[in-house]
Amino acid sequence: MPRKYLMRISDCISINNKIEVLKISQSIRRELINAYVFRYLSVVKQLVSEYTIDNNYHRPHDSLGNKTPSQMMDETNAKVSNFEWPEK
């Protein structure tokens, strides 16, 4: 593919979304990756999936007025994105 057609994902999202992605990745690293020693990638995938569900549906966020992202999405009629690992 010619180079002029290649685009990074980060080029497609706004600065506010980039900040949110950075915050989430830092939280996952701090609360999961650095907290455990993993032997299998499947364990990491499972924990990240569980973390995402907890983060979106059960953990209140200060920035959302102590609401969960799913509660905020319900109020605004938006959809919560759930991370899923692609199947091989």
Can you put this structure into words, describing what you see?
There is one protein chain. This protein is mostly helical and 88 residues long. The mean pLDDT is 76. The two termini are 24 Å apart. The protein has three helices and no strands. It is globular, with a radius of gyration of 16 Å. It has helices at residues 15-33, 41-57, 69-76. The longest helix is centred in the first third of the chain and has 19 residues, at 15-33. It has one domain (13-76).
Descriptors:
88 residues, mainly alpha
Strands, count? 0
By secondary-structure content and strand pairing, the structural class works out as: mainly alpha
Helix content: 40-55%
Calculate Rg over CA atoms.
16 Å
DSSP helix count?
3
End-to-end gap? 24 Å
- What is the domain total for the residues? 1
Strand content: under 5%
The shape is globular
Poorly predicted sequence stretches spanning 5 or more consecutive residues: none
Order of helices and strands: HHH
- Mean pLDDT over the full residue set: 76
- Please summarize the sheet with the most strands: none
